[in-house]
Write a structure and sequence with these properties.
With 289 residues, this protein is an all-beta fold. The chain is 2% helix and 50% strand. The strands form six sheets. It has a four-stranded antiparallel beta sheet, with no helix packed on it.
């Protein structure tokens, strides 16, 4: 691996929004192509907030509640191809789906032990990482009517999988495993890249990435950009890096090298910009190419 040029260059921050009073301990973000807005999951009274790319708050939904339709502790958020909002709820160990107006249309609790990350594939199915079951689960459903078509374990024997992303072009899946490191309860991370048949194509551990960064890498967010490159958020080095496409080797480059406090998620926007969710200062930073 080398710190060579990635096809995605460094980016410039042109918008920053959120903070206490708007976002509380944000955990996940996703871009909605049907509305052109960013969805953010956080710990506010309403767990989901929708913002324009310029940072204007336009809608909130997902009431903080212990009721079946409410959100207890939202972790990750994704938007289906037909515009529904999927959320993993670690509070009651469920996957929940909402309409754009905020109506809960689907709740899936079995077989999840602790659902965490989620992504949408090209077939408009939800892939969920279950960190306690060490697996990836595929959920196919009619999101508008709430009917489940199938629920299938598609990848087993992972090690505490959390963050995931799906490449819409070829169906490849990135999954981040969180590995116990020592008796002090610290941990390291490992990135696995799977093809659309769930066969492992490559894995990249923190150690190999750390040769080129000041501190050990701890991956906290992943995404595919529009060119198929892999974007990685690293909380230890407070940065976002880009790994070239698989077929082009392992060259990496900083995308965001400074200005982040505790990046936890990445969303790629329609115009090629990227939104980085910074849990350290409770904000979203949008970077244009």
């Amino acid at each position: 691996m080398s710190v060579a040029s990635c096809s995605r260059g460094s980016v410039v921050c042109d918008t920053s929004f959120g903070g206490w009073g708007v976002l509380f301990n944000p955990t996940g973000t996703a871009f909605c192509y049907s509305t052109g807005c960013l969805l953010v999951a956080h710990d506010g009274k309403k767990r989901l907030s929708r913002f324009t790319k310029n940072g204007n708050l336009v809608h909130e939904m997902g009431e903080k509640s212990s009721s079946e339709n409410g959100l207890v502790y939202a972790i990750s958020v994704a938007v289906t191809l037909d515009g529904f909002v999927a959320v993993t709820d670690a509070g009651d160990h469920s996957l929940k789906v909402y309409s754009q107006a905020g109506k809960c249309t689907l709740i899936v609790k079995k077989p999840f032990l602790l659902p965490w990350g989620l992504a949408i594939n090209a077939e408009n199915e939800v892939i969920v990482s279950d960190t306690n079951a060490n697996s990836l689960v595929l959920v196919a459903a009619n999101f508008s009517q709430g009917g489940i078509k199938k629920i299938v374990n598609i990848c087993l024997y992972l090690s505490q999988p959390k963050e995931i992303a799906v490449c819409q072009a070829n169906g490849s899946v990135i999954v981040v495993e969180h590995l116990a490191k020592d008796n002090k309860n610290s941990s390291s991370t490992r990135i696995k890249i799977l093809n659309n048949k769930m066969k492992i194509l490559k894995q990249i551990d923190s150690f190999s990435l750390s040769f080129f960064l000041p501190l050990d890498v701890h991956t906290s967010g992943v995404a595919f950009d529009q060119e198929g490159n892999i974007l990685v958020a690293d909380v230890n080095n407070r940065c976002v890096i880009c790994l070239n496409k698989l077929e082009e080797g392992n060259a990496l480059k900083y995308v965001v090298a400074s200005g982040l406090s505790y990046p936890v998620a990445i969303a790629v926007i329609e115009d090629g910009s990227i939104a980085v969710l910074d849990s350290g200062n409770h904000s979203v930073l949008v970077y244009s190419p």
